[in-house]
């Protein structure tokens, strides 16, 4: 069967147009997906479909070209490189706030200087020349911390400063603190506080004296007040209950009080504090005192005579300048010197602690280390409080 030429041409033309129409549809779809990843007029990427979010009524297809005709001469989108971040500058050293071990690390002009280690060497040198500096600095630390906290207020010179109060007239060791401060100012000017110098010296001396080697915290600031009238320290003539109350006011437990008084394992006492315990007819006479000890002490402190003599607080001659638990053994044997020391071994509230410390040297060391850290943190000034004195004996 033959078809007319005109009919054949019509069929070919229709087929050609159909192919072209299908080709246009494919191009339109491809153009729409490219547009979805292009930048908006504000320079931000459009996330309408690329993050899986649906446009209203679009069912996920790109919308916005009403005639679905492919645009002409659309350049290939170029994804810009992310902006370069500015070079990071080294962090500025900041002074830490609060007590911490190694507070002064990196704060000296020479960042490699370990100023606390340098100061400890000075303490070691002084101790080799004068081992009695141990009880002297221990006493200084206690007397300082119990008045306005550990702020070195005891170091201030003046007519009516803490240094001039009765209980502090016999405090000594100032020359060591001044020598350490001079070293600190030479290597770290205006950085190391006098309060921290006392704490560093105390910690190092306890270790040199055979006691525990605890990690000292630093970061204290120096106080701005020092008045003799503010000095109110527990008297050695107080009862155990009164002493417990005095320590409790400073937030110490009875056990901590006993271990801190155990620091009387080193040091001496003058006759004025125990002389009346030796002789009958006085209000302080102690009939339970070890008779041998009484006979030994009478020549040192004759009856009715104000003698400026002294004796060791720990009556064990092999341990009189060693930080150990010997003191507790001595008071159990009724060989205590100060009235409060001996009372610890007789009062039901403190006897259990005395027995424990007397029996265990390791327990003594552990408890003493913890109590010293707590004592040296008592009401301290930190951060922007107080000041860093240039000279320990005067305010800036």
Automatic annotation (TrEMBL):
Ligand binding (Ca(2+) 2): 265, 324
Native source organism of the sequence: Chenopodium quinoa (Quinoa)
Gene3D superfamilies to which the protein is assigned, alphabetical: 1.10.520.10, Peroxidase, domain 2
Catalytic residues (UniProt): 143
Protein name: Peroxidase
Site (Transition state stabilizer) residue list: 139
Keyword Metal-binding: yes
Chain intervals with Basic residues compositional bias: 53-64
Subcellular location: Secreted
Disulfide bonds: 108-188, 145-150, 194-392, 271-301
Family membership: Belongs to the peroxidase family. Classical plant (class III) peroxidase subfamily.
Entry keyword annotation includes Cell inner membrane: no
Catalyzed reaction equations: 2 a phenolic donor + H2O2 = 2 a phenolic radical donor + 2 H2O
Biological role: Removal of H(2)O(2), oxidation of toxic reductants, biosynthesis and degradation of lignin, suberization, auxin catabolism, response to environmental stresses such as wounding, pathogen attack and oxidative stress. These functions might be dependent on each isozyme/isoform in each plant tissue.
Residues covered by the Plant heme peroxidase family profile domain: 98-396
Cofactor note: Binds 1 heme b (iron(II)-protoporphyrin IX) group per subunit.
One GO MF term attached to the UniProt entry: lactoperoxidase activity
Region of interest: Disordered: 27-96
């Amino acid at each position: 069967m033959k078809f007319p030429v005109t009919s054949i041409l019509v069929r070919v033309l229709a087929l050609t147009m159909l192919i072209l129409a299908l080709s246009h549809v494919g191009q339109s779809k491809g153009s729409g997906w490219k547009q979805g990843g292009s930048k908006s007029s504000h320079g931000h990427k459009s996330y309408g479909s690329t993050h899986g979010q649906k446009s209203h009524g679009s069912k996920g297809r790109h919308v916005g070209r009403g005639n679905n005709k492919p645009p002409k001469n659309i350049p290939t989108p170029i994804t810009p490189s992310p902006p370069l971040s500015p070079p990071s500058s080294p962090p500025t050293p900041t002074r830490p706030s609060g007590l911490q071990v190694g507070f002064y690390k990196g704060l000296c002009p020479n960042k490699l200087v370990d100023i606390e280690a340098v100061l400890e060497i000075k303490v070691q040198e002084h101790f080799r020349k004068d081992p009695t500096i141990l009880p002297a600095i221990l006493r200084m630390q206690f007397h300082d911390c119990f008045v306005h906290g550990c702020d070195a207020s005891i170091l201030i010179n003046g007519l009516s400063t803490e240094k001039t109060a009765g209980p502090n007239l016999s405090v000594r060791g100032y020359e060591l603190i001044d020598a350490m401060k001079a070293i600190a100012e030479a290597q770290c000017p205006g950085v190391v506080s006098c309060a921290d110098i006392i704490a560093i010296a105390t910690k190092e001396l306890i270790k040199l004296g055979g006691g525990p080697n605890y990690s000292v915290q630093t970061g204290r600031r120096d106080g701005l007040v020092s008045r003799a009238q503010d000095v109110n320290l527990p008297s050695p003539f107080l009862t155990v209950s009164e002493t417990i109350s005095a320590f409790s006011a400073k937030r110490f437990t009875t056990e901590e009080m006993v271990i801190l008084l155990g620091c009387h394992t080193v040091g001496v006492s003058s006759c004025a504090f125990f002389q009346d315990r030796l002789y009958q007819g006085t209000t302080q006479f102690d009939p339970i005192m070890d008779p041998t000890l009484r006979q030994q002490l009478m020549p040192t402190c004759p009856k009715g005579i104000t003698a400026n003599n002294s004796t060791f607080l720990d009556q064990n001659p092999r341990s009189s300048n060693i930080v150990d638990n010997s003191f507790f053994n001595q008071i159990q044997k009724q060989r205590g010197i100060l009235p409060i020391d001996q009372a610890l071994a007789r009062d039901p509230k403190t006897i259990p602690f005395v027995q424990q410390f007397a029996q265990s040297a390791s327990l003594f060391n552990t408890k003493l280390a913890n109590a010293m850290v707590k004592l040296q943190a008592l009401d301290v000034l930190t951060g922007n409080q107080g000041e860093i004195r240039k000279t320990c004996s005067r305010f800036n």
